[in-house]
Design goal:
Layout: H1 17-37, H2 45-53, H3 60-74, E1 79-82, E2 86-89, H4 90-96, H5 98-124, H6 131-143, H7 158-172, H8 178-189, H9 192-201
Antiparallel strand pairs: 1-2
Helix pairs in contact: 1-3, 1-5, 1-7, 2-5, 2-8, 3-5, 4-5, 5-6, 5-7, 5-8, 6-7, 6-8
Length: 209
């Protein structure tokens, strides 16, 4: 029996965003790990925008596409709920809802570029490249580019906000790159040395925080 199709159900993201949270966490871990190991040559907000808009030779798409495929493969047999009655594998959901699949790919590229900017800034300032700190700064700048949340702190709703952002992007009509550029500006202007000190002064909330 073939799997049911999400059809127009994707237009009500609240029904299935919770099912994508672990997928988002997996993608986030993948892109941050890659950025720490091999950061893109981005050193300011303009570099980030150029990397996201540039050809595949920049290394963004050439990394994200196979990485996302690997993540999706790991999730191919895991079930995502859509509303109260239907369920699908995550792979089926992404296949059946092209705008969502595109949004996840674009979002992964954005996170990879932003994490690379954090890594490069830390190295330029002679600071340790702490993977958890890189992830926190990247996520907080991405989710709250206008500020209001400390870049070095763990914020419980952050991953859910990423899932919501990616889910609603097809409906928002925002020009590609605008959101990521604002996030890059937040990273570029932040005092990472002070943020890093504050980060180490606060106890961790637990694994992945």
């Amino acid at each position: 029996m073939s799997e049911p199709s999400p059809g127009s159900g994707w237009r009500d993201p609240a029904t299935w965003i919770p099912s994508l949270l672990s997928l988002v966490e997996d993608v986030l871990d993948t892109v941050v790990n890659r950025a720490v190991a091999e950061p893109l040559p981005v050193h300011n907000a303009a570099d980030v925008r150029d990397a996201l808009e540039g050809p595949t030779g920049t290394g963004v798409t050439t990394f994200v596409v196979p990485a996302l495929a690997q993540v999706t493969k790991r999730w191919s047999g895991r079930v995502a709920s859509l509303g109260s009655k239907l369920s699908f594998t995550v792979q089926a959901l992404l296949t059946a809802v092209p705008p969502l699949a595109t949004s996840v790919t674009v979002g992964s590229r954005e996170l990879h570029a932003l994490a690379s900017l954090v890594v490069n800034r830390l190295r330029a300032e002679g600071l340790p490249v702490d993977r958890r700190f890189v992830q926190r700064v990247t996520v907080n700048a991405y989710v709250w580019p206008s500020g209001g949340h400390a870049l070095e702190d763990a914020h419980a709703p952050a991953v859910a906000r990423i899932a919501g952002l990616w889910a609603t992007r097809p409906l928002a009509g925002e020009k590609a790159g605008d959101w990521a550029e604002r996030a890059a500006e937040a990273i570029e202007t932040a005092d990472l040395s002070d943020r890093f000190t504050r980060y180490h002064e606060r106890p961790a909330l637990g694994p992945g925080s």
